[in-house]
Every structure is written in C-alpha cells, then in structure tokens.
Amino acid sequence: MVKLIAIDLDGTLLDDHKEISQANKEAVQAALAQGVEVAIATGRPLEAIQHLLDQLGLNTADHYSLTYNGGLVIQNYLGEAMSKRTLPSDQVTPIAQSLLSLDLPVVAVGLDQVYEYPYPDGHPSNYHKTMPFLPFTGVENMDSDAQSAIFKLVVATEADHLASRLEEIPESLRNDYSVMQSHPHQLEIMPKGVDKGQGLSQLAKLLGIPQAQVMAIGDEENDLAMLQWAGIAVAMGNARSDVKAIADYVTANNQDSGVAQAIRHFLAELPH
C-alpha cells in the first residue's frame, strides 16, 4: 500500500509549458485525501517551487519537499531543514575552475542566492532562465559564510555544447562528487552521496514510512536514485531509456498527465 509519493517536476509533474495539468492537481489531491503523503523532489530550491506547492495544496508545515536533488529535505511553508548536505567550502571554486577550463559556464547555488562565475567566451549560463525566482550576483560577492553553504554547482548551457564536453570532465570529479544531468542542457555537481534517493530515504524515515510503501515518479538521470530506492518506481512515457529500464510501471508522458495516470493506477489499490 502506497503511503508516500515523491514526484519530480520538469518532464514529470510539469508539462512542456512548466504548468501542472488539472488532472495532475486532482490526482495529488485524491492521494492526500486518502492519507497518502506527497512530496516534490527537485533540483530547485524551495523558493522556486512555492507557487507550485500552492497549486497542489502542499504549502503547509504538514508537508515536505526534497530540494537541491535531495541535498536539502525541507518543511514546506516554514522552510525548516530536516536534513542538509552542502559542498566542502574549500572545494567550491576548484570544482568551478575545472569546469570553466572546459568552456562550461558555472554558477554556485546557495540557499537563497546564485553566484555567477565569469562565463567562457560565447557560452553564457542559461540558469537564470530556469531559476527566475532567485537573485543572481557575481562570485566576487560570495563571502566565506556563503561559500560554506553552497548546495551545488550548475552548468546550464546548450545541450550540444554540454554533450561535447561530458567525456572531458575529470574522472576524479565524478569519483569525489555526485555529478549528474537534470536535463540534456544542465549538469549538476553535488556532495558525494547526495541524490534524490538518499533524500527520499531520509524523508521516509522521518515520516516512519517503510521503503516498500514509497512510490517515486520521474524521467531524468537525476531521478534514477530515487526510483531505484523506492518500493514502486514509475517512469514517465517521455523518460530516458535507462529510467524506463528500472521502472515497475511506465505511465503516460508529461504532456498527457502521466503523473495522474500513475497515481490513479496505484490509488485504485487503496481502500476508499
């Protein structure tokens, strides 16, 4: 019996216009009405999903979100951190420099601020288009306190440019940190062991919900860990092939309210 559902945003709950369909809203409400907890699992910070939580009826202190790809499990509305993992402060700039040397634009993402490193010629960061809700400033304004509270470094650039550089990323970086794509055009670097899977396990433990009663829904590389951890793994119809390969159930795509289809499929097994 499902007691907790973790749902990715982009390419999953959101359609291609970054909106939540009425069917998806109603399905989430139906789950909540049956006592099933619903948590958003995203690479975004809490500030960037408040409007979505409002639409779903989740923006209260009774609900939680997995933000920064599981780096911060946070109580909605109050913003209280339940678990938190940040990058080592003395490694933030060295990691950024290794990426900049590959002509990849880099930003450092803190709790409520994004710090921009000088961009390589011809390759500006596109992260501000994804995160218009957050304030951006130059890295020269990142003091020691801010540098000790960086959740992730993000490369947001043209998909073909990123793809052409992926194999050049140092193996040591992949060994020492969690390096994964959240979109074809976006790469994220987080502390080793930080992913949506460990964030979801932390939340389930907090809520006292067994792993077998947890369902996760996603579509991208950064969703793999939580689908692998969850008792029930749901891949979107538009998901990557490696995500579909580990799924227990493949639902419709994000343009056709695949989240609603999956929730209703598994809610049908719950007593009404």
UniProtKB/TrEMBL annotation:
Question: GO: which molecular function terms?
Answer: magnesium ion binding; phosphatase activity
Task: Name the UniProt key words of this record, in alphabetical order.
Answer: Hydrolase
Which GO CC terms are listed, alphabetically? cytosol
Name the Pfam families for this protein. Answer: Hydrolase_3
Record carries keyword Hydrolase: yes
Read off the PANTHER family from this record.
HAD SUPERFAMILY HYDROLASE-LIKE, TYPE 3 (PTHR10000:SF8), PHOSPHOSERINE PHOSPHATASE (PTHR10000)
Protein's name according to its UniProt entry: Cof-type HAD-IIB family hydrolase
- Recall the taxonomic lineage recorded for the source organism: Bacteria, Bacillati, Bacillota, Bacilli, Lactobacillales
